[in-house]
Design brief:
Length: about 525
């Protein structure tokens, strides 16, 4: 077990010298008794026990890799709702249906605080995994919610203060797939033709262990070193500045942490055997900071059928798609004209990323890299026609917003290595005047990225928004064709110099929710705030 004082000191050092030590005044970690309270009258259709714990998994030849991983067990309901990804550290995929009432009994078997956030889901504030509801090691928390979202590909991951980036990096993440009646009526590929593709970047040592920042990750040698005096020294290294006052190369809080090895579904060199048939690929970028420019190796178009918040009105063909951390797209893949024995790679094409000038990895951000491979293994004449119409998407109603012509501006700022929004960094309970919205209203927000030239993946909890307009800076101008703005989204890539205007509706749930950059190290270095939905 870590000694808590040591952990707190680490947090303090993370922010020390930046003027942001105040972020540490914050919510108490809940006791098991509070977390376990039952919410009156909630009768679940599906009840799952979800445990975050340390384990080892054989990911490649050689020693097994120490990871943190979610393990799930169905207590009540259809056992098929929980589907393991074999040989992966990723949590099982949870298959849910709109309207279902779900209870997830989360058990924290880690040696640090945690919560679970249901990324993209529209749930009450106490069910959203906000860091103020973090639970201690050994404690549990009952998440109860009705599935209100459209059919689509969502995901779950930890969200405790100061530990999110590390917990996701060492394996805590899983997909959450929702279906609904509208989607089930469509002739879409199902079963073995409905493939999750979770893309991440990692650094493996020669011993197959994951490398991240000093003194992070699952126990063994790392847990020992956490309790030693070496801790402080190592953290100082992270925040060291040189004489000119600029940060050391690769300072991850400013730039993000970048792996040199791509893993898909938790495995390096991932390959999928496919038939000469149609597939639905559910792509999630679960990387901490790396953005991808997805494309097929042979230049065939990517047929996008869904974004973060579910199906588009109709399929959209793209030469490539930009996928920032936390974003999802679903792709219709048709291998019917491919010959048996052929292989097709999915790549990330090169693109200009400002982070490129300063990072920790041998694989530069924005570098071209193969992601995974599809091997056409057998012939079948079983093939679905791509539907022309997929789903109904409500037309944009900007005039319904309280501020249709005067967007609220959220500037992404950086002050001496601490990120912020309009100059304010994360503060556990803090809400600024412009961060208060009224329940039942819509607003136009604009994320503006004109400070340090680095990309951000801005994510808003509680809802799915629509992108109204993008004003491209020099970086995104060259990849402007790769944005899919036709549907619902919860995360949006804002490249250097960009301004992105969104329409958001705050419905059903009052309370305190978060919005932040999903580049996990940026969020850890302050790029995260609350907004308050006032009843
Ligand atoms: Cu996917 Cu606030 O997170
Ligand atoms: Cu960022």
């Amino acid at each position: 077990m870590n000694d808590r004082a040591g952990v707190d000191r680490r947090d303090f050092l993370r922010y020390a010298g930046t003027g942001a030590a105040a972020v540490l005044t914050g919510a108490p970690v809940l006791s098991a008794a509070v977390g376990e309270r039952r919410h009156s009258g909630f009768a679940p259709d599906l009840e799952i026990e979800l445990t975050a714990r340390q384990c080892r998994v054989a990911l490649q030849a050689g020693p097994a890799t120490r990871v943190w991983s979610y393990q799930a067990r169905v207590i009540k309901g259809d056992p098929a709702c929980v589907q393991e990804l074999p040989g992966s550290y990723l949590g099982p995929t949870l298959w849910l249906h709109r309207g279902q009432r779900v209870c997830i009994h989360f058990v924290n078997a880690l040696d640090q605080p945690s919560t679970v956030h249901w990324h993209g889901l529209h749930v009450p504030e106490t069910m959203d995994g906000h860091p103020r509801f973090a639970i201690h090691p050994g404690a549990s928390y009952r998440y109860e919610f009705e599935v209100k979202n459209r059919a689509g590909t969502y995901w779950y991951h930890p969200h405790p203060h100061a530990y999110t980036a590390e917990q996701v990096y060492f394996g805590l993440a899983g997909l959450l797939v929702i279906s609904d009646d509208e989607e089930q009526a469509l002739p879409l590929p199902r079963g073995g033709h409905d493939l999750p593709i979770v893309i991440q970047d990692r650094i493996f040592g020669d011993d197959n262990q994951l490398h991240y920042l000093p003194h992070t990750g699952p126990g063994g040698d790392t847990a020992e070193s956490l309790d030693t005096a070496g801790n402080a020294g190592a953290v100082v290294e992270e925040t060291q500045v040189n004489d000119s006052g600029s940060e050391m190369p690769g300072f991850p809080g400013v730039t993000g942490f970048f792996g040199d090895t791509i893993v898909v579904n938790g495995r390096p060199h991932a390959a999928f055997d496919v038939a000469t048939s149609s597939y639905r690929l559910r792509l999630l970028n679960a990387s901490n900071s790396r953005t991808y420019r997805l494309a097929w190796q042979d230049g065939r178009p990517l047929t996008v059928i869904a974004t973060d918040g579910g199906l588009l009105e109709r399929p959209v063909n793209k030469d490539y798609v930009m996928l920032a951390p936390a974003e999802r797209i679903e792709v219709w893949a048709d291998f019917s004209k491919d010959t048996v024995g052929s292989r097709l790679a999915m790549l990330s094409l090169a693109f200009p990323e400002a982070t490129n000038v300063m990072h920790n990895s041998t694989l530069a951000p924005g570098a071209r890299v193969p992601l995974c491979e599809f091997k056409v293994a057998h012939k079948t004449s079983d093939r679905l026609e791509l539907p022309h119409r997929l789903a109904k998407i409500e037309p944009l109603q900007v005039e319904d917003a309280v501020n249709p012509d005067t967007p609220k501006i959220f500037n992404i700022t950086n002050d001496r290595y601490v990120w912020g929004i309009n100059g304010r960094s994360f503060d556990m309970m803090g809400v600024a005047p412009e961060e208060v919205v009224m329940l039942g209203t819509s607003e136009v927000w604009e994320f503006a990225n004109s400070d340090i030239p680095m990309s951000h993946a801005m994510h808003v909890h509680d809802l799915q928004f629509r992108v109204l307009e993008r004003f491209h800076g020099p970086y995104s101008r060259s990849v402007a064709d790769g944005f899919v703005d036709e549907g619902w989204q919860d995360t949006v890539l804002v490249m250097p110099g960009d301004r992105v205007r969104l329409l958001l509706r705050f419905a059903d749930f009052p309370g305190l929710f978060m919005y932040h950059c999903h580049m996990a190290e940026h969020a850890a270095a302050g790029l995260m705030r609350n907004f308050l939905v006032q009843a």
